[in-house]
Amino acid sequence: MKVAFVFPGQGSQYVGMGEDLWEKSSEVKDIFALASEICEIDMVKLCFEGPMETLTETINLQPALATVEISIFSCLSRQKILPHTVAGHSLGEYPALFAAGVLSLENTLKVVRRRAQLMQEAAEKHPGTMLAIVKLDIDKVKEILADYKGAELANYNSPQQIVISGSPQTLKDISERVKDAGGRGIPLKVKGAWHSSFVKDAQVMFKAFLDDIPFNPPQIEIFFNTTAQAENSPEKIREMMWKQLCSPVLWCEEVKNMYQAGVDVFLEVGPKKVLTGLIQKTLPQDYNYKIFAVETMKEIKDLKDI
């Protein structure tokens, strides 16, 4: 059995996330307290009371999700439930880096906070949005994208779910083309055109920031969004983390590569079950694997059987 922990990104949040663990674990209370101090946010109030509009501000959301996912991971570790492999979707790569021992807890929170600040600033300077495309494959989406300037591939989530970033008008035009081709375009409620050149300003400054952050060799296997492959070199990992801001998330390929590397148990560590659905759509039904999702203490304790 080879277990992969997978950590979700933006879009999994809800008001109340992490509260069950916070109430039942002093370790989680300590993580929330440290996150509040480093990120200069009242993390308890933000996660448990919201409101949703405040929680979904990029500057708040990224540190909040990272805090909750690290808390869940810590509770799993306390129960001696540990991964052989880790991966994360976009922001989720940071809890994965912590889980693999690449970043300390303090540095994970510092990096996530700076990333959120820079992304929010870039999005305000270069407004854009995102469009999810379903019922078309990647080749057809790329064919349509080739006819437009101002739109880029952002997330390759599953064989039938692809997300693009761009200007609102361009994405509106592309949505019509997608409809004509037999697909469907779903506008996403996001604060920016993530994983595209729209946030290039953030990438430049984030690279400089990461140069001063110590990256350690991973203690376990870790896969990355920009290549869909595993990587061991701290310097290459550092490079991938700043490149990730403007590069597509190759989640579909990453999941396939994890399965090919022997992963047969996927455990989603985070709020909701977004990645669970994407993995189930990516790996055929006849593949021999198990998948679980946890975010409460009961769910963690019920996992003893895996």
Automatic annotation (TrEMBL):
Q: Which GO terms label this protein's molecular function in UniProt? A: [acyl-carrier-protein] S-malonyltransferase activity
State the Gene Ontology BP annotations: fatty acid biosynthetic process
Give the enzyme class. transferase
Q: Which residues form the Malonyl-CoA:ACP transacylase (MAT) domain?
A: 6-299
Does the record carry Transferase as a key word?
Answer: yes
Which species expresses this protein natively? Desulfofervidus auxilii
Q: What is this protein called?
A: Malonyl CoA-acyl carrier protein transacylase
Name the reaction it catalyses.
holo-[ACP] + malonyl-CoA = malonyl-[ACP] + CoA
Q: List UniProt keywords, sorted A-Z.
A: Acyltransferase, Transferase
